[in-house]
Records
---
Amino acid sequence: MDRIDQFGLRSLADAYLRHLGDRDIELLGGNASRRAELAQTWRANPQVLAQRLSDKELFESLFDPEQADRAFLIGASPFLVFAVAVHRTQAELGNATYVTEWMGLRQRLPVFDVAGLRDFLDSGWRRLFLAELLSSYTHVASGSVMVHTQRGWRRQRFSELDPVRLASLMDVVSEVERPGILRRLGDLALFLTGVFPDHIERRGFGPIEEARLMRAASVREGQGLGDKNRIGVAGYGSGGAVELLEMLGKRWYQLAYELIPRPVPADVGVLAELAERFDQARRILNVVTERHLFNFRERWFGRAG
């Protein structure tokens, strides 16, 4: 059952409405001037919104294989586009017996474990999380911060699309800022392994980069990511970059959740679930990307760093 957050968002409907512009409301068949009435309807029956977002005609109006910028031309926001893609994928998985999944560089194979993906997408808060995640990477932050070292002040660059540079911020940010950086590291691990797995697998990480990523997850050299850290993985051995980021992503989400002040809002509480179910979230993004986003990835996200 979807949780109702008594401390921030009144309901799942409010969480969606904070992202939807007037044009989005119109595309969903509503009246932009009657948001309050619409919110009341969605709060009373969240399935009304869910059914509309999974509507096949709405999906086809946004995703035209012959026109990659179709959604831009009709004025849909990135959030609506990705919310529709996630909900449409949920509808498609309803009767699916298998899904084609990423298994390695340029390797896609049929996998018959669909029940776990259906269960993950049964939660409205988790569907919202995936749509928010995807839309957040249509505009990414980059820049530099001044860092004091033994040799004086120097400029340290960062990018929200570069996990190594983003991880380096953990060495310089304040305690208050750490949960936000950890959350964003988890987000980036999920985004890259879910949407650009071939790219990140091909890129790989060198020993120094790997050490920096592990340090950002509070993993000491030689410690691994085993049971003592509640990850359930025996460490990063011969696996590739996708495997490493999947393990670290769980850890980063776990640490972020533990550091967030209580009470935790319902939409942020999903982080605790991602620490346990990262692989399912990654698999769902693989399916969403392969089925609906593959031809439009660079249009929406540019090139992954």
Note: Residues 1-9, 226-237 have pLDDT under 50 and may be disordered.
---
Amino acid sequence: MEILARTVQATRSYGPVIALDGVSLDVPAGQLLGLLGPNGAGKTTLLQLFAGLRRPTSGTVELFGGDPRDAARRRRLGCTPQETGLPPTLRVHEIVEFVAGHFDHPVPTGELLEQFGLTGLERRQSGGLSGGQKRRLAVAVAFAGRPDLVLLDEPTTGLDVEARHALWDAVRRYHQEGGTVVLTSHYLEEVEALAERVVVIDQGRVRADGTIAEVRSLVPARRVRLRAPDLPDLAGVERSSREGERYELWTADSDSLVRQLVTTGTPFHDLEVATASLEEAFLALTSQSNQTVASVVQEMV
């Protein structure tokens, strides 16, 4: 399988701050990869390395088998950064056509605008667009040149639910046609809806890398939900919460927990047993790394 982008032990520092710390990551052709991580985790820096906007302090970065700063390689790349500065006096069609003019076989302007819900805005100056419309335009131009790889940094920030789902549909179509996407998002449901592979980054390091199911499985505890007037002390409960008769219990052995409920004769109903959600796995993985760093700092003190 062709690797479109790759980092090998890539580190990027900004003075004393280490944004990326020895990250090795491959992006194979045809994959839709979601990058998750808290603010300052290193997600944007990683995309900037792939796009040739930053150089690694150490380690290597490749784009289409070579230097990301090579203009010929970047012609196969589409990008939407977190912050975009669209020229306010240019009309929507002028911005799209300007970007499209850099490519040999661009998507026709009308077709591209339709895909991203911008039809009818062709002659509107970008300065007169709403925040959500500007964001959709910024994402749309990333696809103008029919790129082989698209990097999307928080693509749906500022969009309402309807616009967000319309953008999801456009990204899915591109991926179904063989395109490769790396996206970051603060919306875990977005990554869960789109990505086939998830990479969790925290404090510049990769904490997890796999399918959504594999990342969820890294949190061994299972969530047991049930309704009961009251519960006895149960062995193996790691944490719990209660709202009226609704209990939520976390345990490493849900079978044992249910057997205890039965053998103690505890009346209960509406029993549900589930693995951790992606959000719960993400919070557990990032909190674990933060706790590790905190303990190291405490030892140093």
Note: Residues 93 and 172 are 24 Å apart (CA to CA).
